[in-house]
Specification:
alpha+beta; 2 domains; 5-stranded antiparallel beta sheet; 4-stranded antiparallel beta sheet; 25 helices; 7% strand; V-type_ATPase_116kDa_su_euka
Length: 835
């Protein structure tokens, strides 16, 4: 089989590179993305490796670029992203990049420091301007209202006695600004500390001021404090300092205040001009940097990745050759050798690189090639567990089975069309949507699964046609094959009246899907749909499980595991076929032989219950006596065949349980405790054979599993399979249950919401219908498409992970993680967005 059905054959290779050509060769391999390097220095500290200084230099360059990026985003400048990936620069170009980043950082930091100093000066001048304006009002009020009562209130009784008529009391004052939220506490502290011997006036600054440190808008107030004496002056200044209030000089004379205010306004105008020029210069620097920032990030990350990879290599004794070990896909060795040759030519080296294939006992990594279509399906499988090396890959089969089983639960032509159109829109616009890189996790999940969504929608449209269900209504394309023998009024008045198949049915089934008359049936609609959907759920489930067991045959034949083939696969398949596939055959026999239009003994009344028949078969019970003129069994020899099937199926259980461990024990004794080919358990080989023509290197593991562990492992495996066959078959009934629930919810929404609007008449009815339709559409998309779709998706995922993959898929491998610039840059960009 091709690599689509199994992971790629891998080879462990040893790579010899000349020191001068190593950088260019690794760069070419990074562009290729097909080589996974192993760390040959696992015991060496990261700070003691050969290229640690180069990695540190790259870290420093990344730090400078992040600083530039932060400043660019702060100003809202768009960064140019051409989508192109520049090549990794040569080592000598690192010096030029470092010089460029150093110059830009220093220039930007200097501009920012100058701008901050100018903004701080501007803030001080602005606060002084407000102080001069507000204090002028205070002084005018003081001049108009200076009398003896005010002096007594300000200075207390002692001050009032000291003042004489005609004398002006000399008061000191300080003026400043303080944050508005600190003002109440500031005022209380002044009153308590100065014992009420100060007079505080304050006024709010209406416009918020910009904090030069962080650019936040802050609200402040102007205050002026009057006091008498140096002692109070000292105390007031200390309180202002404690509350971080800013004090400014304020002349006492009105003329001096006016002169200072004019000087402040002139300086503010000059500062505005200088600040504008500074911001323009800063903007020009950032715009120039924004044009190249994405490319600079790519270059630096590529350089860093190359040196980080070179740190995984070993140096030979001459210090002139680097030695690496790597996993490579067998089919791509020639492509890798060409890339190494290009790297050698770029570096100007005359010594060609050497790529030798090695033998190993290690399990190679699992590498499944994917494209944009198969990637999402492979991700579903890998979420359960990465396949063991060269194990059968369920992903290609999941492309069909996953949307089909989803559609069995979600079958509705209308809902499926909505889902398919959404998926098709994402597929048609995928280039533009992929370019809009977003950190919205929900959207990324939807977009990543766009092909799954589209296929689920298309398959749901198909099953919707089979069910003849579109928004809980039917399409009468070919005309119903049922006809009423009663008059219309009789049928409408009696909801329990049923049509007679012998007289009202044409005899030929509806050409495609369900006859539309079942959608308008009342009493027996759910009974009919239940019987139909329950049976097809079991049929699909048994076929799905048998297919999973057959997949295990491909694993056993590929890994040449003869014992597992004979004593696991065959008993498992026989057990499943003789019990559960036989039950499926009984369903088809019942559908074919028994009908409502047939005469006894093959009429509808004589049709036996499949469930009761199966229970009697397993328990060896004698069937109950059938109705008169009916036969006990569905076909000749049924009882004998059923007894034989049950006995053979039960006989398969000890074969699965004991045969393989006993043969392994016998083989070890004969070979003097040496394992023979095909006689090792899955636990011994890890489910993988590395030897022979299947590539990857060495033979079976050196260490053997204890016989007691083999018996325990086989017992668990057998019990799980036997009990799981029953529970897994019943688990597929979720197909019926969710399909029934989906159909009933759709009918409830139609009956209780949309039909109310359709019954309205007149122009008012049109308005009501519009509103009702909008409400119905929201509920349909929100509940029936999104929530029910998510529920059906999760149930389908469970059926694949547990019921299907448990038959053959171990998922004990580890993923192939090649050295790839694309993956490194994508991960770096994602982490930067998260920060």
């Amino acid at each position: 089989m091709g690599s689509l059905f199994r992971s790629e054959e891998m080879a462990l290779c040893q790579l010899f590179l000349q020191s001068e050509a190593a950088y260019a060769c690794v760069s070419e391999l990074g562009e290729l993305g097909l080589v996974q390097f192993r760390d040959l220095n696992p015991d060496v500290n990261a700070f003691q490796r050969k290229f640690v200084n180069e990695v540190r230099r790259c870290d420093e360059m990344e730090r400078k670029l992040r600083y530039l990026e932060k400043e660019i985003k702060k100003d809202g400048i768009p960064m140019l992203d051409t989508g192109e990936s520049p090549e990794a620069p040569q080592p000598r170009e690192m010096i030029d990049l470092e010089a460029t980043f150093e110059k830009l950082e220093n220039e930007l930091r200097e501009v920012n420091q100058n701008a901050e100093a100018l903004k701080r000066n501007f803030l001080e001048l602005t606060e002084l301007k407000h102080i001069l304006r507000k204090t002028q009002v205070f002084f005018d009020e003081m001049a108009d209202n200076q009398n003896e009562d005010e002096q007594a209130q300000l200075l207390g009784e002692e001050g009032a006695r000291a003042s004489q008529p005609g004398q002006n009391l000399k008061l000191g004052f300080v003026a400043g600004v303080i944050l508005r939220e600190r003002l109440p506490a500031f005022e209380r502290m002044l009153w308590r500390a100065c014992r009420g011997n100060v007079f505080l006036r304050q006024a709010m600054i209406e416009t918020p001021l910009e904090d030069p440190t962080n650019g936040d808008q802050v609200h402040k107030s102007v205050f002026i404090i009057f006091f008498q004496g140096d002692q109070l002056k000292t105390r007031v200044k200390k309180i202002c300092e404690g509350f971080r209030a800013t004090l400014y000089p304020c002349p006492e004379a009105p003329a001096d205040r006016r002169e200072m205010a004019m000087g402040v306004m002139t300086r503010i105008e000059d500062l505005n001009t200088v600040l504008g020029q500074t911001q323009d210069h800063r903007h020009r620097v950032l715009v120039a940097a924004a044009k190249n920032l994405k490319n600079w990030f790519v270059k630096v990350r590529k350089i860093k990745a190359i040196y980080h990879t070179l740190n995984l290599f070993n140096l030979d004794v001459t210090q002139k050759c680097l030695i690496a070990e790597c996993w490579v896909p067998l089919l791509d060795i020639e492509t890798i050798q060409l890339a190494l040759r290009r790297g050698t030519e770029r570096s100007g080296s005359s010594v060609p690189p050497i790529l030798n294939r090695m033998q190993t006992f290690e399990n190679p990594p699992t590498y499944n090639r994917t494209n944009k279509f198969t990637k999402a399906f492979q991700a579903l499988i890998d979420a359960y567990g990465v396949a063991s090396y060269r194990e059968m890959n369920p992903a290609p089969y999941t492309i069909i089975t996953f949307p089909f089983l989803f559609a069995v639960m979600f079958g509705d032509l209308g809902h499926g069309a909505i889902m398919a159109l959404f998926g098709l829109w994402m597929i048609r616009k995928e280039k533009g949507l992929a370019a809009q890189k977003t950190d919205n996790e929900i959207w990324n999940i939807f977009f990543g699964g766009r092909y799954i969504i589209f296929l689920m929608g298309v398959f749901s449209m198909y099953t919707g046609l089979i069910y003849n269900d579109i928004f809980s209504k039917s399409l009468n394309i070919f005309g119903s094959h049922w006809h009423m023998s009663y008059n219309k009024s009789t049928v409408l008045e009696n909801k329990y009246l049923q049509l007679n198949p012998k007289g009202d049915y044409e005899g030929d089934p509806y050409p495609f899907g369900m006859d539309p008359i079942w959608q308008v049936a009342g009493a027996n609609k759910i009974i009919f749909h239940n019987a139909y959907k329950m049976k097809i759920s079991i049929i699909f489930g048994v076929i799905h499980m048998i297919f999973g067991v057959v997949m295990s045959w491909h694993n056993h034949t590929y890994f040449r595991n003869r014992i597992s083939m004979l004593y696991e696969f065959i008993p498992q398949l026989v057990f499943l076929l003789l019990l559960f596939f036989y039950m499926v055959l009984l369903m088809f026999i019942k559908w074919i032989k028994f009908a409502a239009t047939n005469a006894k003994p093959y009429s509808e009344a004589c049709a036996p219950s499949i469930l009761i028949t199966f229970i009697d078969m397993v328990l060896f019970n004698t069937p109950k006596a059938p109705p008169q003129d009916c036969e006990t069994y569905m076909f000749f020899g049924q009882h004998f065949i059923q007894v034989l099937f049950v006995l053979v199926a039960v006989g398969c259980i000890p074969v699965m349980l004991l045969a393989k461990p006993l043969l392994i024990m016998q083989a070890r004794k004969q070979a003097n405790v040496q394992p023979i080919a095909g006689a090792t358990s899955d636990a011994e080989t890890g489910g993988v054979s590395n030897g022979g023509s299947h590539g990857g290197g060495g033979g079976p593991h050196e260490e053997e599993e204890e016989l007691s562990e083999i018996f325990i492992h086989q017992s668990i495996h057998t019990i799980e399979y036997v009990l799981g066959s029953v529970s897994h078959t019943a688990s597929y009934l979720r197909l019926w249950a969710l399909s029934l629930a989906h159909a009933q919810l759709a009918e409830v929404l139609w009956t209780m919401v949309l039909s109310i609007g359709l019954k309205q008449e007149g122009w008012l009815g049109g308005i009501i219908l519009t509103c009702v339709f909008a409400f119905w559409a929201i509920l349909t998309v929100g509940i029936l498409v999104l929530m029910e779709g998510l529920s059906a998706f999760l149930h389908t995922l469970r059926l694949h992970w547990v019921e299907f993959q448990s038959k053959f898929y171990k998922g004990q491998g580890y993923a192939f993680q090649p050295f790839s610039f694309d993956a490194i840059i994508e991960n770096g960009a994602a982490s930067a967005e998260a920060e």
